[in-house]
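Data availability (excerpt). The following record was deposited with the supplementary files.
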Amino acid sequence: MGKKKKKMEPGMGKTEVRKRLSTIIANHPGESFNYKQLAMRLQIKSMETKRQISEVLREMAGDGELEEVSMGRYRMKRSGAYLTGEVELTAKGAAYILSGESEEDIFVAFPNLKHALNGDKVKVLVYARSRNRRLEGEVVEILERRKGTFVGIVQKSANYAFLIPTGKQLPYDVFIPMEHLNGAENGDKVVVKIKDWPESQKNPVGEVIEVLGKPGDNDTEMNAIMAEYELPVKFSPAVLKAAEKIPLEIPDAEIGRRRDFRNVVTFTIDPKDAKDFDDALSVRKLKEGIYEVGVHIADVSYYVRENSVLDKEAYGRATSVYLVDRTIPMLPERLSNGVCSLRPDEDKLCFSAVFKMDADAQVLDQWFGRTVIRSNRRFTYEEAQELIEGGEGDYKEEIVLLNGLAERLRAERFKAGAIDFDRVEVKFDLDEKGRPVGVYFKRSKEANKLIEEFMLLANKKVAEQIGKPKAGKKPKTFVYRVHEQPMPEKLESFNRFVSRFGYAVKTGSRKALTTSMNHLMQEVKDKPEQNMIETLAVRTMAKAAYSTDNIGHYGLAFDFYTHFTSPIRRYPDVMVHRLLQRYLEEGRSVNKEKFEEYCKHSSDMEQVAANAERSSIKYKQVEYMSDKLGEDFTGTISGVTQWGFYVELDDSKCEGLVSMTELDDDYYEFDETNYRIVGRHYHKEYQLGDSVRIRVAKANLVARQLDFELVKESLPSKSVIHEKEGTGQAVQKEGFKSKSRRRKEKAKPERKKGKNKNR
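Predicted structure:
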């Protein structure tokens, strides 16, 4: 049954009439209408309103918004301009087309998408723009599908089946003929490939290509996340065979071609659960106050030759993926955990950056090249930290020395304007079945920062080696890690938000911004709003990416920066190793366009992997809270939208939604500018940063969604904000109105009341 259309009331103004007519005509761009047909669609019977429709149609034609195709019949006027772009679906099913051929995004209503999905490359016919309206159009051709497989749950009947998608990337169910179920049973979670999509049909036709298992099973859900983002879980037999052929033994001839560090004290420092060790540090005293520090990185490029089966696989994946309970490596385990891994007491091939430094961590000299090492000890971060804090153990002197140098490097970096995003990581304690039984917070200590600083130094100096050539020579094509400065409007929005907590960020010069941002990060430590402000601060910054065009790294305050230190888990690092070796041997510059394409692919895959990792965290959060239904918790409002507000729990950082439909004491409106929802009648407000008491109402593992309900006797606490703003006392809050009640209210003409200063 079709959706009931909202009636127009007699006496409605021309502006509202025009708005509704535009919506109908824009949603049917190929059709023409007269005033009678439009009145019928709007269920208008009043002759007065029908005459008004006719008048508005003539005005819209005169303004160039419509064209009159015959006497009294109108349709959307087309500009004749065709653009290509990428589809970005909205939550309501409409889309914006992002095109490099237009400064403005093109809005496309849902009926005009022609089955285009999120990320698809499409050809769009742009409508003639009317006054004060956004640019609109319709999809005329799908040029390239971004995604052909989707994850969901099978629903079987006697004669047919459907896939009910669990992700947000497909707003349609997929019809599956019984002969294409491939063993899937009712309720199974599966991967379906779309085979056909007849233009006349709403639903695409697909076939099951993989049965993942039953919803709610840990392995099923983790594999579903990988399938949802089209990330490969397994390696092909050809790739595994190529990996098995690589010998563990190093030829003597190869050792002879390299600088030998096997007699220099060398060790790795990694997380306790790490299996791949791709970096090691060596240190020795040259003379009083002068030290040699070697940053040794697994020489993956020696084993993974360009254009080999292994290389093509590594490039396709571009990065390892770290889900909560498992790692999906970029390289087969024989390489990542065996051949290339810098395991203790084994000779290993490395690509190294070796620095001669004084006691103030000033680099006096540097060398880059291929080496052979033998790690003396594998440290966990906890073991190294214990030595730094005064404990006794192996290589204490060396670790304490390196920590002192790292602290000086760090101080110098912040002095130059680096931003300190030292965020708390949320981790889960898992049982033998992968089910979360506890949550803990992981903070970076000196041992973590020790490794971080020397990796940053190596990355910076390698980038400078290529990006700052000797006088008279042009820089050669290289792979940089770049980070743009934040957009002014994002900074303004962030500053407006933190001001509600009594904080401020100076947005003038770069130095002023970075100094005040670092000051803010220190101020919010151990405060209820810490996680929220840190998260928003990171979102305010631009995303770092790979590029052959060096613009520097804003967040680190480096003019030159690259990724050199993790080739086991990142393909750009493999590219950097190859290019560095090529240029050290005075080789010619590589093709810039080709490597820019490699950079874009690596950046895209990095983002996909990050999204998959976030999805796995969200699943574990929901799983962790699933046995806590009906329990009450204190949390902080972490996001406000037109459909409700999100609450992040203080003790676990799990996030859930308090939906507007569940709140029933007032009609609430979304105030986007001020990050709040406000009651129309009682003026109660729920604002970003408010402390609230919630009850866990629902934990949907399939949708990876937590639903909360507000504990009625609890009021949002405004103490943090209001005390700092000097208002003193929290405002008394009332409740919300139900969805059905709001609909009724909306349908009624509003009576005139006394002045309402909040409108």
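Summary of structural features: The first strand starts at residue 66 and ends at 70.
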